[in-house]
Amino acid sequence: MPSRLLIFLRTCALLTLVVASFAACRGTGSRIEEGDPDVLYNRAKKSLDSSDYRNAIAIYEALDARYPFSDAARQARLDLIYAYYRNNEAESAVDEAEQFIRENPTHPRVDYAYYIKGLVYFEQSPNFLERWFNVDMSERPPSDTRQSFAAFQTIVQQHPKSEYAHDSRRRMLFLRNRLADYEIHVAEYYMRRGAYVGAASRAKFTIENYDGAPAVRKALEIMTDAYRRLGLDDLAEQSASVYRTNFPDTAERVDKKKSWWKFW
Question: Given Cys at both, which of 25, 84, 88, 118 links 93, Cβ 3.0 to 4.6 Å?
Fold first, then answer.
């Protein structure tokens, strides 16, 4: 009997601690919502600058919910994009960036929203394991890469004087090569399958959209070979001529009878 009473008392004490902890959490949440917009913003910014992203997010969200039309809330939405990004909440960061862009298309700092959106997609692949095992990323459909490229391209084209334009342009070059490599991977697959029209189309798309990428040389080789196999000798010779002009050191590749992509 005494042992049962002791167990009962311990259980009651444990429940009391749980309730007290829950009440403390609720108390903290209510304190977050106290103060005018500027006070809340400064509190959130302090947490952000201290890398306390979780707390910063909680305060920014409370500020936006309580004072949605204030200047502080508008700035908070930009900071919130960054806080989500640094807190590894990629989906929330993209959603917040896209919402800010929709609601504030002429805002002087809308370029920042595009930039963070581009960074989020830029860092989606390859991940750590893929880099560790040297996975060939040219074989993966580059949906994130296209999203990232589009975001950076918007900055470069629509906000050329932005402080993020230079870095965006550098990242676009990397992404351009990644996208071009994927198109070549698909074109090579079509060649192996005998789908020469599809191969020529992919190669042409690569040349027209990713000018300057290393993959352009291989795209011209594919176009030349595909057109020859389709009996389109004029188009094949045009492709070969462009190849010879731009890559004279390896011009023999487009003059060979045997397909470059076959090893037998």
Answer: 84
Contact between 219 and 253 (Cβ < 8 Å):
no
Residue 153: HSE in the Cβ half-sphere, 13 Å Cα cutoff: 12
The structural domains of the chain, with segments of one domain joined by +, span: 31-87
Strands (E), 1-64: none
Report phi then psi at 12, rounded to 5. -60, -40
pLDDT at 9 over 60: no
pTM of the model: 0.74
Percent of the chain with pLDDT over 70: 77
- pLDDT of 252 over the 90 cut: no
Give the SS3 label for residue 35.
coil
Which residue in 82, 93, 214, 193 sits closest to 147, CA to CA? Answer: 93
Torsion of CA 3, 7, 10, 12, to 10 degrees: -130
